[in-house]
Description:
5-stranded antiparallel sheet
Amino acid sequence: MINQLAKITKENAGQLQIVGKLEGHTAPILSIDIAPGGQSLASGSIDGTVRIWNLRTQQQVSVLTGIPEQEQIPRVAFSPSNSNHLAAAVSRKPPEWWSHIKDYVDNLNKDMWLPFRGKPVWRLWSLEEEAVTHTEEIEYAWTGPASLAYSRDGRWLAALYDVFDITTEPYTRIAQLNQQHYVDDMAFSDDSQLLALVTSYEKMPEHIGYSYVEIFQAGSWRKVAEIKGTRRISDFAGVRFLPNSHELLVRTSRDDLRGGDSHNLYHFKGGGFEESAHVLSDVACFACHPDAGMVAIARYDGRMVLLDWEQQKSVATVQAYQPAKQITIPRGVQFGPEATNRVNDAVRSLHRASADMMFSQEGKLLVSADGDRVIRIWGIPA
Length: 382
């Protein structure tokens, strides 16, 4: 299939079409990654499984599980130097929301979607053996997010709050980053010189949340810059470096079960990342083409936009799927089982949009993990 596809460019982006679908997850998909060489794809889901797919045959190869009834997989990543190694971040599966009044009242006026409850861990899987070869827990946090990222030069794995040397067997912890903040997302620059973390913490007992993007120099692991949330730009949720650049794309996200959600994409640049520009609103996730100067953006209405980054204009828009409608919590709702069901439905509806997407290394495939639990493979027939 891949050999019969043309490279996706700004000139032919309007011909983009679905060339395959991968189905099997029983709950929303949170993360995907394509293996070096482009033969395999891994996906992690709220159903607690990591699934491995053959991209050429579009068949499921294996299912990796820990404790699926308790866990979800917010991030998966293949080692750039060993496609047999797959790292998976694991966090506690969110509970159904309780029916008794105290919990309902305590959570009603806040963002109730806390996808990272429970002690986070990460696991290293050997795909040949379908077995876990390494596990790490956060000893100094009982709750928190779980994310990880490999450096492209094959030297480091940043996982949760730690950095590991992956040239050793087993991996060796070489640095600890900010232990006081939760890590929501992370990414290395293409040259592996910088590591960007989306972090957050909640000031107690006021329940005031703060969010940051922290940038570290690889090797010394010294923080070299910090982007603080402001009244205009806050609630950082996702981060990626532009290809072959130290400029950042940062997604912000606020989910409000009463409605009024806000999901935006910003561009940060400058020596201290002090220059910012708004790119697009209603952004569920995004991915950068490796060398064609494009950014693919999934929106909450089920559309996917391919943006010419230099010209800041759309070169193609396709309808990926028809998302479910958002369910909100009306004011004045009565307590009881019916209200609890409404809250649960509203929480689940937050997964109506795509959660992750990425281009293949050669730029022929665009893969999206969509809100209808289907992984779509996009390409342009040659």
